[in-house]
């Protein structure tokens, strides 16, 4: 099986499912939905460690790679996600070279980093357990300004953009598609830097249409809407439509 | 607040959300989605008692009534669901008067039934805890043949149709809308019997359009698609659309 | 350590804690509270199997014996509680000799009963695992009428009275202390039958004062208030007292 | 992939892992250990529904088939295990033709049985979800006497022997290898009946050596030691050996 | 509904329940007990993230505001509690202006702070999700000395005193009511500073009487005894009283 | 009962069980296996807080002391483990005096340290709750070079060696027994420093034979193989042996 890293290196664009519901069943559904990778979001998702572990197992029911977004740049948290068998981590709010180096340090064994040895589940389920994907989030103005420095840190596999946080940090209107020109320019700037540093560019897109848009400027790691929003929308729509059909005046 | 029983008695049609995902969060979303009631399905849903309890609590975050579909007609299971605060139970595969009487017996305190006293959570959260909704499923040919006898059993609030099981039991092609005339006739027959016996008629509909159809023949308790299917469909569609947009040939 | 069975045989009166909160921590507190035994109530308590198991472990942190009240007289449920290490079971709503025999059958290995062999945890934690306490509940008029027959069934260790269900089944006013003379007479009748058949008599008492009262007519297994009620009362009282003290008019 | 049913039909002998520890991780280890199938034992194992579900998911991380031993012959319990994606069920203590027919009825959709339609997880993970393995346990003298009748019930895939219960029911000394000749004769008798009725014969063996022995008289479904015992033994042995080596007198 | 912030601004005194038992049921009881707010204590309470989430849902079954005490001043932990729908956080051991600023930073979106955008549950259940209560604990001598500086940090809603830690840090005898004059003076000093800086003053009180005492010197956020202690005391007392009544010598 | 600290001071060597499986049942088995102490490993074990708590309770079913290895040197995490009743903590990757001081600070109440007061479970189950064992890991070249300084920090009870991380950090071949002379010298160096500073020396050994070897150079805290590995090995071996016996060519 071709690894996600290899597919990205070969220039392939990939789409990802985003799990925020704390459930092994919804994680398994995500892994069987046709996406190329699945994120267990333990930052904004409603998921702690004990549930995350079982969700990673549920994703392993298919061959689809799993990634964990950790809540914050903490070595213990990153290492626990990797030992549990995540194929990689996404670390939010990286705003300096030192922070990026800390991420790589937590993901890699010596001499490259300082990850502690004990890949309890990872070694059993993933032949590539020594080289998980190390993905940093660039999502503030401050980080965009030094994005070249950040992406120069050796060992980073991908940079992932949080468009909402990026817009908020700049005082701009947020939208997945970057309706605000300043917002859009920053997102394009990150992709350029990624290309230059041979790092994969990723971004939260929401819809397929936005994914296509960012793909066209070089993003290969395209996250679609989170499960909470997909389910909430579908459930609300079905109720609303039914209510309308059942209302006295309806034909 | 007008109770569900009163709304049905007043002739109102209602739509219900159907929870099969074992998660408090998806249950809370269902309760906030605009449906009139929420079912925690512990028969075909992936939900056991310990998770069901917390899902009932999640539904109580709104004023929307909760119902539990139990796995089978067992007094201990029915009483546990009611003690946990369910607003009522839906009991599958009722095929005889004796079975229907057993359902009522498990739902009602003496002298009507034989429910044991100990409404630990129910008493705290539901002022109407002595009179939960008692709903029997009619979903076999055998049951349809004696539906008048079944619905004559005192204490039944509603009859709920499982169209798939009904079709399968008759060797007919299954469809929510009853494309097969024999299937459809049985479903209409149940509504007629319900009307005669002053019992609310309910049915699993899937789509709003089917809900409208069954509403028009007298069904007032209209269940829409289960959360598993809503989420699976939404997730698969978004991945498929994205893949199509990203494929080399796409414009 | 003297077993509970031996203490009862020696004429000792014992008091029990009653767990209805689904939590290992409250179970451990109950086991450390000075009661002689602890019940994990999976009938009216908000507790399913997966939580019950860990509560039994929490009770084993002390030497206090654990009992499980099962939801209903089902062999699979009784055996699972015993395999999980419960020191005995309390089985509700026993209304016939056949039902009592079924309870004993599920609690005892052949040739006495039909319990299946596989005491996974019981064998590890309880040297007396082959002889768990087998306790039937007599809590209907119908059962009181044949209480001598029920308690003649070989293998029953104790009979336990649910005063609420008993009163309700007789159409009498319920009270733990049996304010209604008819209620009281039935409770005394059960104790007499228990004495005659060398079976321990037990009852849900609520308060220590009521425990003393029933002790005086021969009850040795005296259950005090459930944890839900103790905590609810304590929490409500403290809030109410504080509100009163803080109200503008208070001194 | 060749299904387990096909391998048995082709005369192949298979060995199974037996999960009694309530944990997704030990279930995943079992699925990766080289056994041909994995049982989640919800009878004597310390496993309720909510944990069983996640253990079935953990087993699906490999292609190894999963089986659930249910606590008792109850239709609701059997159907829930199958809807959760178990590849089959093992139902204990089948002592009559009627009981065997009830097992088949719960495992098969009409017109063969009365299984209710709603294979929530099964349909998603198992293309063969309409035909799960239906396995009855013969483990009493009474059942052995009518084993030909039991195995004549259409729809049974395998008969599984519980040697301990069988010995106990006959008042004989128990041993996996059937040291008692009467015990052994009953086990051989079951295999003969299975062969005649084209039903696979299975048995709990404990050790590989006993598996080999029963294989030689026709058993193809050979269960090895449960995880609880394997872990307990390994942990105790390592402590004991260390204590010996560290004791003052040791060289 | 008037928010807690508004009630405090209007000068109202409020009492709070304190949850340390890891259980959705005890959390729901706390929310229904008549207290004005409920704390889920994930510092000294036996509660991790996955349980905290469901407890927050249980509290939402009423309109009573929830607060989470986090284990330590960590941005990821604070943000996870807020995204899960807590109405605010209480952050322990704030000993410097920089630490206080870090708390505010984690609670507020840019440009005020650096909270990351993704209020998965908060947005669904709380219309005021952008402005959760930000509460710092002053509980060391060192912090009291610079309490004016700490409470000058913009964005702090309340200061909460841990009287035990405060006494211990000063080498003084601890008591909720401040029997030691030095202890008491520090507690009064904090209230004065709070008043000056228009920050609400809060404190752990234990009993209603102590709450009244601190209310009288300006405290408006008055926490009463934790559930563990309330339940432990009630359970021990009932057992002790029963034992006394049942002892041979008792009348 | 003699405490672990006292046994170490008396020169006794002890062996420990190592829990990485997230399960109360395997924790209870470890506590009953004959080891002198049990570690709940929340660093490389698959265990988060909510499961850790119940595992600590399961260990308390015996008198065997429990230790928690925390994921990283974080005060909140250390204090939560201690409040939950752990008899001590093992803190990984201590590479400086400041880090060692932070560990002691988190483990001790003022004036020695800065642990916050609130030993919710610890106080109930452990009379020695004010003095938990404080154990630092020395497992890098950098730490070995300053091991004398690290172990001079007052309040450290033991130093624990992670031989794998130590070897990896030095670019040496790893083995529990220190086949590489450089690896072995570092391990011996740590024991010498421990002896000098009156600190107990501990090490992960895997097998009893390696435990004996390190015992002979002064190690008293000897951890044997983790449960995951013990179970995995036992399960794989039994399957492999059975397959060999059952293969056509086998006698």
Q: From the alpha-carbon coordinates, what is the Rg of chain A to the nearest angstrom?
A: 19 Å
What kind of sheet is the major sheet of chain A? 8 strands, parallel, barrel
Most extensive interface between two protein chains, with residue counts:
A-B, 43 and 43 residues
Examine the secondary-structure arrangement and name the CATH architecture of chain A: Alpha-Beta Barrel
Q: What's the end-to-end separation of chain A, in Å?
A: 54 Å
- Strand tally of chain A, please? 8
Average pLDDT across residues of chain A? 97
What is the overall number of helices of chain A? Answer: 12
What descriptors fit this protein?
homohexamer, 251 residues, alpha/beta, TIM Barrel, eight-stranded parallel β-barrel, globular
Quick summary:
The structure is a homohexamer. Chain A has about 250 residues and is an alpha/beta fold.
Structure explained in plain terms:
- The structure is a homohexamer of 251-residue chains.
- Chain A has 251 residues and is α/β, with parallel strands linked by helices.
- Chain A contains twelve helices and eight strands.
- Chain A has helices at residues 4-9, 24-31, 49-59, 75-83, 97-107, 122-125, 141-145, 147-151, 163-170, 181-196, 208-215, 227-246, and strands at 14-19, 37-41, 66-69, 88-91, 133-138, 158-161, 200-206, 221-226.
- The relative contact order of chain A is 0.12.
- The mean pLDDT of chain A is 97.
- At the A-B interface, helix 2, helix 11, strand 8 and helix 12 of A face helix 2, helix 11, strand 8 and helix 12 of B.
